[in-house]
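Input C-alpha cells:
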C-alpha cells in the first residue's frame, strides 16, 4: 500500500479512489482472508490519514 503525503483538496477524491482500487485488487488476490482484511484495514488507515490531513490543511 502506498504511503500518503500532503494532498491538495482537489487530489483527495482521486487519491481515495486509488487507495480503494489498490486495496480491492490486493484483497481479491490475497491468499488468506486475514491478508485480505489486512489490505482493507490498511486502506482505511490511509484514508483516515488523508482525511486528517485535509482537515488540518483546510
Amino acid at each position: 500500500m502506498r504511503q500518503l503525503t500532503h494532498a491538495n483538496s482537489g487530489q483527495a477524491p482521486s487519491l481515495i479512489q486509488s487507495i480503494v482500487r489498490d486495496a480491492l485488487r490486493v484483497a481479491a488476490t490475497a491468499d488468506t482472508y486475514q491478508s485480505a482484511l489486512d489490505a482493507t484495514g490498511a486502506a482505511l488507515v490511509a484514508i483516515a490519514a488523508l482525511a486528517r490531513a485535509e482537515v488540518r490543511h483546510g
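The mean pLDDT is 86. The CA atoms of residues 4 and 49 lie 8 Å apart.
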